[in-house]
Each structure stands twice: as C-alpha cells, then as structure tokens.
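Why show two proteins at once? Because comparison is the fastest way to build intuition. When a single record is shown, students tend to memorize it. When two are placed side by side, the eye starts asking what differs. So, the first record is below.
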Amino acid sequence: MGRLIKYELKGNFKFFLGLFIIMILLTFALYSRIDVWSSVTVYVLESLAITAMFVTILIVSINSFSKEMYQER
C-alpha cells in the first residue's frame, strides 16, 4: 500500500507542485494587503484558500487512487 501511494504522488507531482506554487503566491499577495484590508479578512481568505487546496489535493488523490485500483493502468 505504501508503494502505491508513493507512485501516485510521483505521478501527480507536477500538479501538486503547481498547486503549492500558486498557494505560496496567493499567500504573499494576501499578506501584502494586510495594511489595506482588515487583518481578519486576510486571515479568513487565507484559511479558505488553504482549505480549498487541501480538499483539491484530497479529491485528486482519491480519484487517482481509485483509477489505479479499479482500472488497468
């Protein structure tokens, strides 16, 4: 099972890397607006972005895993 997860992560590496780069850029953009917007607003938007990123990663991993388990690749 560990090997299967390892190969799934390697297969989706470019997607995950792109998602993390976008998240880092979004974080810097939001924190640069902390003096203009309310601090609470920035933190809420950051929390929503992080939650959306983790949900996206979870969905992509589950879909990829189910394809590997139920289809011949």
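Second record. Ask yourself what differs from the first in the token line.
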Amino acid sequence: MDSTTDLPKIDFTSNFQNIIGNALSSTPETRQAVDPSTEELLYPVPLSKQSDVDNAVSAAKAAFPAWRDVSYDERAQYILRYADAIEANLSGLQELLMKEAGKPISNATGELGFALAHLRETAKLRLKEEVIEDTEERKASVRYVPVGVGVGIIPWNYPVLLGLGKLGPAVLTGNTFIWKPSPYSPYTALKLGEIAAQIFPSGVVQVLSGDESLGPFLTAHPDIAKISFTGSTATGKKVMQACASTLKRLTLELGGNDAAIVYDDVDVGKVVQKIGPMAFMHSGQICMDIKRLYVHEKIYDEFLAGLVQVVKSFKVGGGGDPDAFLGPVQNSMQFAKVKDLYSEIGKQNWQVAVGGEPVASESKKGFFLPPTIIDNPPDDSRIVVEEPFGPIMPVLKWSDEDEVVKRANNTNMGLGASVWSNDIAKAEKLARRLEAGSIWVNSHFELSPYVPFGGHKWSGVGMDWGIVGLKGWCNTQASWVRKTF
C-alpha cells in the first residue's frame, strides 16, 4: 500500500448504502431509524434481503483465500491504514453517532477514541505457532488458522466500538468480515464500511443494513463460518440454535447483571465519585455497568447519601448536549421495557433514594428517564433479579462475606463483578469467588484490547479481544512433521 495516498473523506449526511464487494449497493426498499433525543426519523438505509446476503457472502468467500495468505504484518498495515482513515473522518462520525445513539458529546467522543485505540492496538497482536515437540525424528506444533467468512452482529448501544472490536481481530487473523449493525443504529456502520471499501481489498470488509429478518439470513447461510454476536441473552440463545444446523463457530457476548460489593473500610467520598458514573454511564445501557450495588451496613447510610448527591449532579440531555452526562434510552422498544420497570416502584412500594417514576409529558420529545436509585429492595425484586439496561439501579445492604458472595452469584448472569476495599488482599480474595467473566478490585468496567472480554453462565460463550479473542476467529490445527521416514 502507498502510505502517501490521500485518506478518503466521506459524506455523513446522505447516501447510506450497503457495502458489497467494495461498492455501494442499494436495495429496492429502505427503512429509517429514529433519533432517540428527538424521536425524529433519520436517513433512509438499505433493507437487505436474502439476495444481498448471498452477494456479500459470495464476495467474502471469493476474497478469503488471497486474504488468508497475506502475512500478519501486511494485514496489520491495512488495519492501521483503516484507523488513520477513520480518524480523518472523526468529526462526521461523532455527529452521526450522537444522532443515532443519543449520546452526549463526552460519551460519543469516548467511544470513538477507545475504538480507534482498540483497532490500533489490536494490529500489534500476533498468533504464533506453538511448538509442542521438536526432536530429530519429528516436529509437532499447534497452529491457528482463520475460519473463513465471519459475521459480526452488533448491538445499538456501542455501535462503533463493538463493531470495530470484532472487525479488527477477524481481519487480522485472515478472515473476511461482514458487519451487521442493529436496525436501531445502522448509520455509523455503513459509513465505516464506506471508508473500509477504500482501504481493504474487495470483499474483505462488507456491511449490510436491514431489519430483524437480516440476522436469520446470516445465521442460516451455509458459507458463513462464524458468527460473533453481542446482544441480549434471549436473542443469543436464538443465534446459537440457528448456528447449530451448519455447525458455525460462535462467540456470544450477552447480557449482564453486574454486582459491586463495597466494604466498610473505603473512603466513601472517593468511591461514590467512581461508582456513580460506572452505574449510570450511557444511561445504564452498557452490559458491564454496575447493576446491583451491595454496600456494607456500617457505611450504608453515608454511602447512599453520597451516591445520591453524585447522581443528582448528572445532567440529562440530548445527543450533542455539551453539558449532559446522561442521554436518552436509545430506542422505543427499550424505553417501554425500562418504563415498565419504573412502574414497579409504586406497585411494590420500593423506597426511592433519588429519581422515581417519570412524569409523562406530551410536549417533551425523546426517550428520557430520570436517573433513579432504589433503596435496599428485597433480593427477589425485579430491580435486583433483572438487568434494567436503563438509568435505574438498586443499592443493597450486606454484613456477612459468605452471604454477600452468595447473593452476588445468585443470578444466571455472569459478565462482570467488582469488590471495593482498602485491603487489596481481602478484596481480591473475595473477587475470585465471584462467578463472572471479568472481575475488578477498586474499579469496574476497565477494558483493554489485550485482555479478553466475555461472560460466564448466561452472559455468553467464548470471549472477544486479546489473544483469546484472536483464537476465537480461528480453527486450531495440529501440525505433525516427520523428519525421518
């Protein structure tokens, strides 16, 4: 590649098309997503059908052999060039992300910044052949070979980070990749595909937009070798069932109901400032947000009062509001689900520490809900048992270590969990008893392109990112070489 070639500049206000074989591809029918801050319709996007899937898979399958044979270092250079091209179009992507996801500026900037860093750091990773035995007679080793055509099915909450977080490892390991964005947030994906079409060889990276029928077309296609899905547990089960008929490789990163356990020896003023944002970031619409907060009874009242003050400081505003920390719920379907959970406040007589049931207003547009804390509800309450995926969470008391571990683990979910204490050894010992794919001490939700990310139990199968994530895009191959025969 010629590094001096001008980087592509993309129009982010029109012409949203599928990317198939490095060309813009329209469909007879289109659909429109909604700006969650205003409830206004956004731009028309393709409504892909079986024929579009077939065309994209054919292009990906044709591109695979040559791409597989490109060296790791050369594939990494393509990825780095792609990252540079994305950065050259960052302002347009940011405006689009704020519209489709309802993200305040700080959140949109953060997602794009982390996504770019993730892509560039992923390009540094390598899967090397592992030599098991090497004698005069023979050599035995383990290799990791790309599976072929891969698909990333991306959710609506972090459409750029989670999309690029699948694309990078997939193409670095020699696979071709089809990106299927959520129907609720297709816009940034289509434009990232448009950028990719000017960087990668034809068929290596493609993007298909559609409605809820598109996913089943992909999971059923016999020439697709792997599905990497991020989304709800309920949908993940359907994806797993659909992939079984063709024995597709599969990675599922599903829902979470993350617990955080706070000991009585913490600096309350400092910890509430950290936990507040980790519970309410993106209005609670992150799988690894803190969803259940267990605070030791000795500091419970002080801690809750401090946390309430932190949450009261969060400004709620629409996408693009420079002062907002919390935006709207991203779509009408999720808005209805979270509102239903809010309606339990009065029915169950939950004690509200801050926030409460929303007041309906015909004049106010947008899927906004007040950030809400429920004070020590029963453990069998919906707010404790279910993942809200909205700006509402319970704070609960605990006193006994064994008991709080049992309560934290008493869920089908197992994505993340954290422990907070000034005694690091004690906190780490407790954290290791928690049933989750990621555990943290004195933080929550830390991520790195070098560290795998995924869940236990109903929170997923397999992991993304890091060396573990790269292996998930490969078949393991045992290699035997007889030197004398």
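One difference worth noting in the second protein: Residues 293 and 395 are 5 Å apart (CA to CA).
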